[in-house]
Amino acid sequence: MARTLALLIAVDKSLDTSWNPPPFARAEIQALSQVLIQQGIPLSQQCVLTGELTTRAILDGRTRQWAATLQPDDTALIAVVAPLFQQTGQNRLIGFDTLPDLLDATSFPLDEIWHRFRERCRTILLLDPSATGGLPPFAESELEEFAESGNAGLILTACSEGEPSRFIDTTKQRAWLSLVREALAGRAPSAASPKGAITGESLLRYLNRELPRLLRKHFDDFDDQHPMAFGDRSIGVGTVPKPSETNGPLIDADQIQRIRFRAESTGRVKALSGFLKTHRVPDTVNAAAEQFIGRIARTDVQADLDDVYQTLRDQFSFARKDLESRAENDGTGYIRTPRFDYFVSVGIDPDDPTLVRWRREIGRMTNLEVMRGPDFQSVFGNLFDQLIFDFAQPLDLIAIVDRIEEAKPKGVKVRLAGDARSCTITITGFSGLIHLEANELRIEGRSTNGPASLLEQFLDFQRRFSGMMSPRALPPG
After folding, report:
1. CA 72 – CA 118 distance, rounded (Å)
2. Phi and psi at residue 127, to the nearest 5°
């Protein structure tokens, strides 16, 4: 049975301090190793060499050992992140024990790695070279020769001869290799061919499009790195994993910590029952103003609770012992019922200290279906115009936006904030908005169907982005 074996090399340190090992090499190779598991290459079929394991002797021994196990129907996938230089047209790898005054004896020829595997089976080389000070950069001519001899082969390089391979300090990633990982992890559908295979051609096309975008975000002079490909570009580097084979859905129902329906409105500070003629309307938003509003709003909060309390008893036939109602001295209050909790609060409006903001919420629902019932509609009508999901772990907003933009679902538009901390999604047929922040998904939109309509919009969102959100049952509010 044909197998794929992976040889992953990251030279991230060296005995001689004059060398400058590529930043984040080890982390990138380890991350690639995990992605290859999704591609059906288990750890037992991977040889990962980093740090002290990249001496000339170990590189020589391990490449011989692993190449000897390959059969003609197998595939060898080699990834190298290392300082590389050329000597009379021969590319040589600087390893952990390479010494400047003994380059011939202590550096390792790249062709020995390539030919040992290429002689046995189809071979793919992912090469992310870094500069080596005053030594000549790697030679493209030798890579062209590699691609023309022996079994089928494909070589993809992070840059052209003489160019830098960029790394990004803020994200601690190597730009080119991070995009390769995104593609193999299934987070970049456009990296695949129409048949779903990630070939050398489709991957190069994706890298040529996305690498400049990525570099533009982090560098002023971003147009100095151009990925290259040599050999048979029709060779498959991987396949787009199914949603269940990727790192999981971007929005996981298991991470939903709380679900709430919310309504907000504003009113004048002077309209609160506790506001006296001797009181002054706040002119700034601060802790003292918050405490003042909380204190004088207690009567109004109690009146709201009394109203809702009685209506709940009438519509749901709750007994007295089924309900617990309490108004606090800080402008908040709640009613606990067997099916859900009702919360109300009054606080100073952060945009205008002469106003107060009323917030009413339903949470801790035993079953979201209660929202669809006539009893709930009779009590709250169309009061609630927001449905909020709080997440236990921060969402990867950039990954979510990228997946939506890659999938291009019909009728969906995404607007990303300049600081990438939030985004707004609009869906054709829904007059409201879907807001995403790191720890919250919020659906806004009032309709004649009340909260049930908000829930339907969420379910529509879930259907449209199949694979983004897990289909597990949603937790109670």
Report:
1. 10
2. -115, 115
Please report which helix (H) or strand (E) contains residue 343, including its range.
strand 341-349
Instruction: Check whether residue 421 and residue 296 sit in a common domain.
Output: yes
Torsion, CA 352, CA 353, CA 354, CA 359, rounded to 10: 80
- Does the pLDDT value for residue 47 go beyond 60? yes
Are 241 and 258 contained in the same domain?
no
Identify whether residues 151 and 238 lie together within a single domain.
yes
pTM exceeding the 0.70 threshold for the entire prediction: no
Assess whether 164 and 305 both reside in one domain.
no
Separation CA 55–CA 276 (nearest Å)? 81
Tell me: the pLDDT tens digits for 73-102?
Answer: 999 999 999 999 999 889 999 999 999 999
Instruction: Name the pairing type of β-strands 153-157 and 122-130.
Output: parallel
Residues 223, 200: Cα–Cα separation, whole Å: 22
Q: Distance between CA 39 and CA 37 in Å, rounded?
A: 5
Strands 75-87 and 122-130: parallel
How far, CA to CA in Å, does 410 sit from each of 169, 250, 458, 467?
36, 19, 16, 16
Instruction: Judge if 148 and 82 occupy the same domain.
Output: yes
Q: Is 446 left (phi over 0), alpha (psi -120 to 50) or beta?
A: beta
Does residue 472 form part of some domain? no
What domain range includes position 447?
253-464
Give yes or no: residues 30 and 165 share one domain.
yes
Answer whether residue 311 is part of any domain: yes
β pairing state of 256-268 and 352-363: antiparallel
From 207, 224, 245, give the residue that closes a domain. Answer: 245
H-type alpha helices, 166-244: 175-184, 200-218
Residue 37 contacts by C-beta under 8 Å, 6 or more apart in sequence? 43
**One domain for residues 265 and 232:** no
Q: Are residues 217 and 345 part of one domain?
A: no
- The highest-confidence range among 248-252, 338-342, 456-460, by mean pLDDT, is 338-342
Q: Of the candidates 221, 245, 269, which is a domain's last residue? A: 245
Is the backbone of residue 40 left (phi > 0), alpha (psi -120 to 50) or beta?
left
Bridging pattern class, strands 197-199 and 173-174? unpaired
Q: Which two tokens stand for residue 264?
A: 């907000």
> Residue 436, CB half-sphere, CA atoms under 13 Å: how many?
22
Q: What's the total number of domains in the chain?
A: 2
Q: Residue 470 domain-assigned? A: no
- pLDDT score, position 254: 65
Contact 350, 282 (CB under 8 A): no
CATH number, domain with residue 71? 3.40.50.1460
